[in-house]
Write a structure and sequence with these properties.
The protein is of the alpha/beta class. About 30% of the residues lie in helices and about 20% in strands. The protein has two domains: about 5-220, Glutaconate Coenzyme A-transferase; about 235-460, Acetyl-CoA hydrolase/transferase C-terminal domain (Glutaconate Coenzyme A-transferase, 3-Layer(aba) Sandwich). Strands 1, 2, 3, 4, 5, 6, 7 and 8 form an eight-stranded mixed sheet that branches. Strands 9-15-20-24-25 form a five-stranded mixed sheet. Bound molecules: coenzyme A. InterPro entries: AcetylCoA_hyd_C, AcetylCoA_hyd_C_sf, ActCoA_hydro, ActCoA_hydro_N, NagB/RpiA_transferase-like, Succinate_CoA_transferase.
Length: about 500
């Protein structure tokens, strides 16, 4: 071992457990359940999964793969191509794996990201045979120091029969000290989680495990995969302006002040762009309590707008990754990284009163939101943490462009084709057309606001026509059930949701 490698394993006995990725992969057998580190492409294990895929070429086998969230380094692509996954949870965002899921070649459990921990702890998910966790170092007492995500790593490591650690020399050792690892007791025997402010630290700096359970240590030297978000465009900038207008109104009405409330922003280009829009705003001394930190958070830190950011992973574009991790001293005292059970915990989210911004694929005239299923059947990525936040936040805001696929899809439809967030969990919806504040409104009060403020002009008349016909049928939440999915049906048959007069009678 080199000196650098020796420095990263303080425990003398554990130095003898350094193995090749191939050897570690040879311990994994058919039918086992693996708990892999990794959350939205950050801090994922990068060597053993590749060795596993190579092994599968010689003799096929299937494993269950549990993670924090999506993986980088094309691991999900390779797993899907090799056909070695029986069941995957709780989130993925890989186009190849998406195809396998939608073709029925593997099972995918789309789970609230705060729920996996409770299910594993209570034994519902069965035993974890191997936790495979990326680390910057292993301490004298066996404590594992994670890298750029915690996700479910601490949960897997403390509940697995065996642990394999991948020490990644490409990750800065300065990450040590930003983590805050804490596991609540079992349900029924648990006190309050003592996070009262976004910046409170309540746990340890690493994952405390019995060193005897660390069966092997592998060295790697590969950076995280950069995020795939696209930079803010004209439309997302306009959406950000609408959101800022809404927040300014809340301040005028005395419900918020210029420091707002701890912010959560979901994955994806749209949520990133909206947060980015705060750079030139008057808001200041902001705090973030979120799961993933994307580029915009670091732009806001650089601009002096954000004082503190709590997260469970950091996922950055290539350029931003070099800047942030190349100058990590500048950022580390502003960052806290926790397990996803804590970053997404309903108790903490409700206590802190978060402003939560997530992205919808589509929403309907009453405010139900679909974040996951294209046309009601095909999985996109998964619900991720959006449900954890939406149900419990002070303000649950959903953003989306009003149209997709060159205008052939309206993101506002009569009835969402799959419900992730019910009308009861959604406070404000925002598109580039404007926003609708749905709080305190009855279903029939929401519709005019949504149609007039959020819908693209190409679809306004068509949506009014649906609603007026529905009103004739009456009810608390008027619908024409036989036409509720007619827009999706029209899309499947004609490649567009735009209907002509023969299909829908415009009144
Ligand atoms: N029907 C079909 N496709 C749609 C659509 C709709 N109503 N609305 C958007 N899309 C497509 C876009 O065309 C785009 O397709 P492409 O990849 O082929 O270009 C894709 O969905 C992504 O949309 P985009 O507008 O680029 O938004 P995004 O990158 O912000 O992603 C989600 C949007 C909803 C897919 C993403 O935010 C997500 O998976 N959310 C669920 C999980 C979540 O919210 N987690 C939050 C806590 S981390």
């Amino acid at each position: 071992m080199t000196n650098i490698q020796l420095d990263r394993i303080e425990n003398e006995a554990l130095r003898n457990r350094v193995v090749t990725p191939e050897e570690a992969a040879s311990w994994i057998g058919d039918g086992m359940t693996l708990g892999l580190s990794g959350f939205t492409r950050a801090g994922d294990v990068k060597a053993v999964p590749f060795a596993l895929v190579e092994r599968a070429k010689e003799n096929g086998f299937k494993v269950n793969v549990f993670t924090g969230a999506s993986l980088g380094s094309d691991v999900d692509t390779l797993f899907a191509e090799a056909g070695i996954v029986n069941k995957r949870l709780p989130f993925q965002a890989d186009p190849t794996m998406r195809k396998s899921i939608n073709a029925g070649d593997m099972f995918f459990v789309d789970q609230h990201l705060s729920h996996t921990a409770e299910l594993v702890r209570s034994g519902v998910m069965g035993p974890i045979d191997f936790a495979i966790v990326e680390a910057v170092a292993v301490k004298e007492d066996g404590t594992i120091i994670p890298t750029t995500s915690v996700g479910n790593s601490s949960l897997f490591a403390t509940h697995a029969k065996n642990i394999i650690v991948e020490i990644n020399l490409a990750q800065t050792p300065l990450l040590e000290g930003i983590h805050d690892i804490y596991e609540p007791d079992k349900q029924g025997a648990r006190g309050p989680i003592p996070i009262e402010k976004a910046g409170d630290r309540i746990g340890a700096q690493g994952i405390k495990v019995d060193p005897e359970l660390i069966r092997g240590i592998v060295f790697t030297e590969q950076a995280d995969s950069p995020s795939t978000i696209v930079q803010p465009d004209e439309e997302t900038k306009i959406m950000a302006d609408h959101l800022l207008d809404f927040l300014r109104k809340e301040i005028e009405l005395g419900r918020l002040d210029e420091t707002l409330a701890p912010l959560q922003s979901g994955i994806g280009s749209v949520a990133n762009a909206v947060l980015h829009g705060m750079i030139d705003s008057e808001f200041k001394n902001l705090e973030v309590y979120s799961e993933v930190l994307q580029d915009a958070v670091f732009d806001l830190i650089d601009a002096g707008k954000i004082d503190l950011a709590s997260c469970c992973s950091i996922t950055l574009s290539d350029e931003k990754m070099k800047k942030v991790f190349g100058n990590f001293e500048q950022y580390r005292d502003k960052l806290i990284m926790r397990p996803q059970e804590l970053s997404n915990h309903p108790e903490v989210i409700r206590r802190l009163g978060l402003i939560s911004i997530n992205t919808a694929l589509e929403f309907d005239i009453y405010g139900n939101v679909n974040s996951t299923h294209v046309s009601g059947t095909k999985m996109m990525n998964g619900i991720g943490g959006s449900g954890d936040f939406a149900r419990n936040a002070r303000l649950a805001i959903f953003v989306t462009k009003s149209v997709a696929k060159g205008g052939n899809i309206s993101s506002i439809v009569p009835f969402v084709s799959h419900v992730d967030h019910t009308e009861h969990d959604v406070d404000v919806v925002v598109t580039e057309q404007g926003y609708a504040d749905l709080r305190g409104l009855a279903p029939r009060e929401r519709v005019p606001l949504i149609i007039e403020n959020c819908v693209h002009p190409d679809y306004k008349k068509q949506l009014w026509a649906y609603y007026q016909e529905a009103l004739e049928r009456g009810g608390q939440t008027p619908h024409i059930l036989e036409k509720a999915f007619s827009w999706h049906q029209h899309l499947a048959e004609h490649g567009t949701m735009k209907m002509n007069k023969e299909t829908v009678e415009v009144k």
